[in-house]
Amino acid sequence: MRVPIAHELPKEEVRRRLSDHSHEIAEVVPGGMADVAVSWANEDTMNVDVTTMGQTLKSRVLVEDKQVVFEVDIPLALSFVEPMIKGAIKSKGEKLLAPPKA
């Protein structure tokens, strides 16, 4: 699953916001029952592994100049939650990447 979210921020600011808020990823999982591991493969790729209900969701966050792309590998056993995950990523991601208020 791919969820692109447009932004108008400098890449450095996007990376900072992602790093500062990565601990909030577990809050998106229903019931809050998730273990989250975050690492940076390079300055523009954040790897996120979320383990819940005996399954691990491997995902990547790709920081691009005008968008951030969230890629999530959803196992077949969890495919029924794809719309919920996509909606949560879109909602939280848009708030995270909103331009600063003047």
TrEMBL record:
InterPro entries: PHA_gran_rgn (IPR013433). It holds the Pfam family PHA_gran_rgn. It comes from the Bacteria. This is Polyhydroxyalkanoic acid synthase. It comes from Qipengyuania gaetbuli. The lineage of its organism: Bacteria, Pseudomonadati, Pseudomonadota, Alphaproteobacteria, Sphingomonadales.
